[in-house]
Structure formats: structure tokens, C-alpha cells
Design a protein that fits this description.
mainly alpha, MetI-like fold, 2 domains, 13 helices, 2 strands, 74% helix, globular
Length: 287
């Protein structure tokens, strides 16, 4: 005989569902509505179909900002993931220094994003900033406010300083969860450091590294505050990432139709890549 199912739990879940619907589904439907119509103000809408999407995908402005966004995301993933693993491997696993290292690693993550941008804005100024003045005194022609290469260097350095700690903490959590028996067996077999990393540590960190890559992709692809405060998208439009370009189109130019279409494409890219990472993570767990 089947036991009756208690449905009272829905009374606790229902407020959460209503809140999620209000904060996510309704604004999303509004964006979809704007992306398929053209408005002239006073709530006057004309059906435009997929015109904004077609215009946007053919736009060199959108292609350039998307290319800059992909370049930034790919670069920081290539730098932060290996760097985070290396730092985690170098951190002590036992003793009083463990707490000190963990606290130091967590400090950059506690700083608000706008403060990070403001800090690096002052830190990298060529006349008074410690970084800028030091590089210029060493003979480098450094000025991130005027030179595109220097602006990209500063932007990437800022993100690496801010977010590598997240990769370090996740990698360290994966490392300390490895039983000592694996290392004892490796020492008995005479395995060297590279063999231990390749066959013991890296496989055991596969899940946390997948999560780290997913989180860093989502964060870096959505980044807005730090580059806006640091460079403002300049010099020129050289560091105008997709998020900054979207904000300019929606809030600066008040071009709501193309901005809505851009935000939906933006959302679909993140959703697709996140789904791929989730599928890989679930496949690794099944194996």
C-alpha cells in the first residue's frame, strides 16, 4: 500500500517560487518583449520580429565587443587556473601557517568590485601610482590611460589579483581531501613529484577545477564594474567589453530594442557554456 505524500512542503517552497518568478521570469519576459518590438516611447510598440537580432549579429560593433570579451575571458582562464593550482600546491597542508595562508588568500575576495577598480586605478597611474611609477622608472613606457596594450595588461593583472584566490581555495580544498594512503603508496613505488601530480592530485582535483573554470567563466564574462571603474572602456573603445557596450547601448543611447537583443544573446552564450560545463561535471562524477 502506497503511503500518502505530504504536500505541506509546497507551502514553504511557494514563496520562494513566487520570488524567483518576480525577480527573474518577469524581467526576462520584458527583455524578450523589447527585443521583438520597436518602441517610440509612451508605451507605443511596433512588431519588428527578429530584426534587432539580425542587425546586431551583422554589426561590427557587437562583433568587436564580443571578441574583446572572449579574449579577456580566455586569457584570465589560461592564467588563473594554472596559477591557482600552483599556489595551492605550494601552500602548507598542516601546521599554524595553514590558517594564515587561507586568510591571505581570502582577503582579495572580500573587497567590493568597485573598490578593486578604484584601487587599481590609483595604483596604476603613471605619475603617482606605485605600479605605474615603478614601471616607468625601470624604463618602460607605461600609461594605461593612453596605450591599449598597457590598458589590457592592467585590466588582466587586476582580475588575476582579485580572482586567482578563488581558484586557489577550491584547488586547496581538493588537495587536502586526498587521503594520505595515496601519497604513501606513491612514495613506496618511488613516484616523483610530477607523477604524483599527474596521476593522484590532478584526477582528484578534476571536479573542483571544473567548478572553478565554470565560476571564473561566468564571472569574467559578466565582468562590468572593475573595468568600468579602471578604464571606462578606453582608451577609445579598446577595453569596451560586451557588458560595458551593453550598458552604453541601453542606458547611454537608450536604444532598448538592440540592447534587449544583445542581452538575450549574452544570456544564451553564458547559459550554453554553463550547460556544457555542467554536463562534463556530471559525466565525470558518473565515471
Amino acid at each position: 500500500m502506497n503511503k500518502p505524500v505530504n504536500q505541506k512542503a509546497w507551502f514553504f517552497v511557494l514563496p520562494v517560487l513566487v520570488l524567483v518568478a518576480f525577480n527573474a521570469i518577469i524581467p526576462l519576459m520584458t527583455v524578450v518583449n523589447y527585443s521583438l518590438q520597436e518602441t517610440f516611447g509612451s508605451n507605443v510598440f511596433l512588431w519588428s520580429g527578429l530584426m534587432w537580432f539580425e542587425e546586431l549579429l551583422r554589426s561590427s560593433r557587437f562583433q568587436d565587443s564580443l571578441g574583446r570579451q572572449l579574449f579577456f575571458t580566455f586569457t584570465i582562464l589560461v592564467i588563473e587556473i594554472p596559477l591557482g593550482v600552483i599556489i595551492a600546491l605550494a601552500m602548507p597542508k598542516k601546521g599554524p601557517w595553514v590558517s594564515v595562508c587561507l586568510v591571505l588568500m581570502a582577503l582579495p575576495l572580500l573587497i567590493p568590485w568597485n573598490v578593486v577598480g578604484a584601487m587599481w586605478n590609483i595604483f596604476a597611474l603613471p605619475e603617482i601610482g606605485l605600479l605605474g611609477k615603478t614601471l616607468n622608472s625601470l624604463g618602460f613606457d607605461y600609461n594605461y590611460t593612453r596605450q591599449t596594450g598597457n590598458a589590457w595588461f592592467t585590466l588582466i593583472a587586476m582580475d588575476v589579483w582579485h580572482w586567482t584566490s578563488l581558484v586557489v581555495l577550491l584547488s586547496y580544498a581538493g588537495l587536502v581531501s586526498i587521503p594520505d594512503a595515496y601519497y604513501q603508496a606513491a612514495r613506496i613505488d618511488g613516484a616523483k613529484s610530477w607523477a604524483i601530480f599527474r596521476y593522484i592530485q590532478l584526477p582528484k582535483m578534476k571536479r573542483v577545477l571544473t567548478i572553478a573554470i565554470l565560476l571564473r567563466f561566468m564571472d569574467s564574462f559578466n565582468i562590468y564594474t572593475e573595468p568600468l571603474v579602471l578604464t571606462g572602456g578606453g582608451p577609445g573603445n579598446s577595453t569596451t567589453l560586451l557588458s560595458i557596450d551593453l550598458a552604453k547601448k541601453a542606458l547611454g543611447e537608450f536604444d532598448l530594442g538592440p540592447a534587449a537583443a544583445m542581452s538575450l544573446i549574452y544570456f544564451l552564450i553564458i547559459l550554453l557554456v554553463s550547460w556544457v560545463f555542467y554536463t562534463l561535471m556530471m559525466r565525470n562524477e558518473e565515471q
